[in-house]
Design brief:
By secondary structure, the chain is mainly α. The chain contains eleven helices and no strands.
């Protein structure tokens, strides 16, 4: 399977996750991973059994209970001081887990080997954390009209967010650092994963 095809498959599964988010209005931690209908055709035989096998493997790698715990911690108002490590734990088991699972499913549907799957996993984790940081930043810097949802609701509810814990400046720097890590994870593909590089850049630079 070609690298561009693999990268596109991983990107499409991530975008499918975002599309489900937009249609349901729920947070990423409150839903299961969406598998775009056309992704099923990526399997060699296109069978539902092959798809089920991949989903079972993903369940083992990214346990749903961990995602639920991350979401639960996020929904709790800050009653105790949360440091960077605690914040990272929340989002590694929430947004990052969902995006990693989406990316892995796309890669597996393109029959990625072990090394390529490991690279996609690292990419997904870094991308998921960077996405969450940008989401937190936009919540306090953009208007509700621009975002298409209520701005400032996390701060009002005293949720554990990156700007609340480390400030806006450090949050922006951390998002850039994680995006670089996501790009570096793709080095194994020798510049042929343009679809994923473009997605990482877009998520870092988005304004809504």
């Amino acid at each position: 399977m070609s690298v561009p095809f693999l990268a596109t498959a991983a990107r499409n599964c991530i975008l499918g996750c975002f599309q489900l988010h937009n249609h349901t209005g729920k947070t990423l931690g409150e839903r299961v991973v969406n598998v775009p209908r056309h992704s099923v055709s990526f399997f060699k035989d296109g069978s539902a059994l092959a798809l089920l096998g991949k989903v079972i493997e993903l369940k083992r790698e990214h346990d749903l209970m961990g995602q639920c715990l991350g979401q639960l911690d996020f929904l709790r108002p800050i009653r105790r001081k949360i440091d960077m490590a605690g914040l990272r734990y929340i989002h590694e088991n929430k947004t990052a887990a969902i995006l990693t699972t989406s990316a892995r499913l796309g890669a597996m549907s393109a029959n990625a080997d072990a090394k390529k799957l490991a690279a996609i996993t690292k990419f997904g984790r870094a991308l998921g954390l960077a996405f969450q940081i940008i989401d937190d930043i936009l919540d306090v810097t953009q208007t509700s009209e621009k975002l298409g949802k209520s701005a400032g609701k996390d701060a009002a509810a005293k949720k554990a967010t990156y700007p609340a814990v480390i400030g806006l400046k450090k949050s922006r720097l951390e998002a850039k650092r994680l995006t670089r890590r996501a790009h570096n994870a793709l080095s194994i593909f020798d510049g042929k994963a343009e679809a994923l590089h473009a997605l990482a850049n877009y998520l870092l630079e988005r304004e809504y």
